[in-house]
């Protein structure tokens, strides 16, 4: 089945009446196959967390492998744009060594025991570029400055900026903030924005998810997801639609109207499903609710330590970074963690990942919100350091903290307000940060249901709306009874 996430292609072109401005035309795409059919050899896929950037690249690699397995020339094989590629490499940027060398990483991440030498692969890619597809996942998961510093042949930086492998098709994924930086290296990227599910897609996803249920239940699930602007907005994001469906597997289930409550419910349901499947019937061998919450907080402490490392915060850990092997095993058992084994060079490496970055930030919020009650000074210190870094990547952490306790919400709102008052919104990067802080403080107020905090804020200078209001943003803006404007 084709992925039903929708894509929008953005092609840039000069405005004929003003050569200093850039215009964009948007073309809706039916599937990734449309994307592969374009002439340009550098494609930048942008979307925020949960929209399926990594899943899309895995889908492309999987479909190519299926085509290769079929030795017969079928109609599907003839029509697929993947059929022209003899080699497809899917590489995770956050797993790369300091040189970010693509051929080195092909051997580290994919071909550790292959008889072909590195030079043979380089020669093939150079001599047959039209037969090679390179998929680079997660440019936003490492500091952009580290990518720029690696400038040898076949480095990610040189490949993305058209200094190496110019005629190979290369696709890279990133969140918006890093995408803006990538465009400074190569403004001629073909940009593909994943825009998520429309109403038709939601219905199709729900039918597939609840295929064993009565069709009337499909209508009930859709009505639950459509009952508020928040849920309708979240339902556009594939990860959150999956979480909502997971929360509605029991007849009579209802959805909450805040994202923090949704994650809490979904995590508990996943935990119960996993435990009922893998654990014995002995009560002593099952986690109590208290023990489960303690487990989430312990995992959150590890997550916080990673997020505090501004230079390389990412969703990959060694077992030794956790308190014990038992903590990792239990985290995997309840569905919050996964183990990944792969070859790095000649060594077998085991890593531990949170199921998704959003789960990682949820666990972190459980740990931090408890700290806001027990040790406010320490909470403020941690939160200040996080807010001085890449705020966009911790949006959900801030919202979850705000939704969990009133005290955490008040701290978060106060700290963001201080930064908004001194924010430089003149430069493009400064404006992007200003908008991000602005959205998060609005959504934190909404998440915490702190209507009482709005009145003293309503006259502040920052309470203006320098971005289009829709979905949750629009709902949060309604907390302020003044008429929003779209100018700074």
Task: Write down the CATH class of the largest domain.
Answer: Alpha Beta
Mean of pLDDT: 82
Q: In one word, what is the shape? A: globular
| Strand runs, count | 9
Structural notes for this entry:
- This protein is an alpha/beta fold and 488 residues long.
- It has three domains: 6-196, 3-Layer(aba) Sandwich (Rossmann fold), CATH 3.40.50; 199-285, no CATH class; 374-477, no CATH class.
- Helix content is 49%, strand content 14%.
- The chain has 22 helices and nine strands.
- The chain has helices at residues 32-36, 53-69, 75-79, 102-110, 118-127, 144-149, 156-160, 176-185, 199-209, 215-225, 229-234, 238-247, 259-278, 289-307, 325-333, 357-374, 376-387, 395-404, 406-421, 428-448, 454-457, 471-477, and strands spanning 6-15, 18-29, 42-46, 87-92, 132-137, 169-174, 190-196, 337-344, 347-354.
- A seven-stranded mixed β-sheet has the order 2-1-7-3-6-5-4. A two-stranded antiparallel sheet has the order 8-9.
- A hairpin with a 2-residue loop joins β8 and β9 (347-354).
- α14 packs across α16, α18 (395-404) crosses α19 and α18 (395-404) runs parallel beside α20 (428-448).
- The longest helix is centred in the C-terminal third of the chain and has 21 residues, at 428-448.
- The chain starts with 5 loop residues before the first strand and ends in an 11-residue tail after the last helix.
- Residues 11-22, 280-284 and 481-488 have low confidence and may be disordered.
């Amino acid at each position: 089945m084709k992925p039903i996430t929708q894509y929008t292609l953005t092609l840039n072109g000069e405005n004929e009446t003003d050569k200093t401005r850039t215009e964009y035309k948007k073309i809706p795409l039916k599937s990734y196959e449309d994307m592969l059919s374009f002439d340009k050899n550098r494609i930048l896929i942008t979307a925020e967390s949960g929209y399926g950037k990594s899943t899309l690249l895995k889908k492309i690699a999987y479909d190519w492998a299926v085509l290769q397995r079929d030795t017969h020339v079928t109609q599907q094989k003839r029509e697929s744009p993947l059929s022209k590629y003899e080699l497809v490499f899917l590489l995770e940027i956050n797993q790369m060594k300091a040189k970010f060398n693509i051929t080195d990483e092909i051997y580290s991440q994919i071909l550790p025991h292959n008889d072909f030498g590195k030079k043979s692969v380089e020669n093939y890619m150079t001599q047959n570029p039209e037969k090679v597809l390179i998929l680079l996942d997660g440019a936003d998961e490492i500091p952009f400055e580290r990518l720029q510093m690696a400038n040898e042949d076949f480095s990610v930086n040189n490949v993305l900026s058209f200094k190496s492998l110019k005629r190979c098709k290369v696709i890279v994924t990133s969140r918006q903030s890093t995408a803006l930086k990538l465009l400074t290296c190569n403004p001629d990227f073909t940009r593909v924005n994943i825009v998520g599910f429309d109403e038709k897609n939601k219905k199709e996803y729900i039918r597939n998810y609840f295929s064993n249920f009565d069709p009337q239940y499909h209508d009930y699930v859709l009505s639950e997801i459509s009952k508020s602007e928040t849920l309708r907005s979240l339902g556009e994001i594939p990860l959150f639609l999956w979480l909502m469906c997971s929360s509605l597997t029991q007849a009579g289930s209802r959805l909450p109207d805040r994202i923090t409550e949704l994650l809490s419910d979904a995590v508990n349901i996943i935990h119960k499903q996993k435990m009922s499947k893998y654990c014995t019937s002995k009560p002593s061998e099952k986690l109590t609710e208290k023990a489960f919450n303690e487990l989430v907080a312990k995992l959150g402490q590890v997550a916080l330590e990673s997020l505090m490392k501004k230079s390389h915060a990412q969703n990959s850990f060694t077992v030794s970074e956790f308190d014990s092997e038992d903590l990792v095993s239990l985290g995997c058992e309840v569905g919050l963690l996964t183990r990944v084994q792969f070859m790095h060079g000649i060594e077998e490496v085991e890593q531990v990942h949170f199921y998704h970055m959003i789960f990682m930030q949820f666990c972190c919020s459980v740990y931090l919100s408890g700290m806001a009650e027990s040790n406010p000074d320490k909470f403020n210190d941690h939160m200040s350091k996080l807010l001085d870094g890449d705020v966009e990547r911790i949006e959900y952490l801030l919202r979850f903290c705000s939704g969990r306790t009133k005290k955490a919400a008040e701290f978060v709102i106060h700290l963001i307000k201080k930064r908004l008052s001194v924010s430089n919104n003149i430069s493009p990067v400064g404006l992007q940060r200003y908008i991000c802080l602005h959205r998060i403080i609005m959504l934190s107020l909404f998440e915490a249901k702190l209507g009482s905090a709005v009145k003293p804020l309503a006259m502040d200078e920052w309470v203006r709306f320098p971005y289009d209001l829709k979905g949750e943003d629009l709902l949060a803006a309604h907390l302020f009874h003044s008429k929003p404007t779209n100018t700074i």
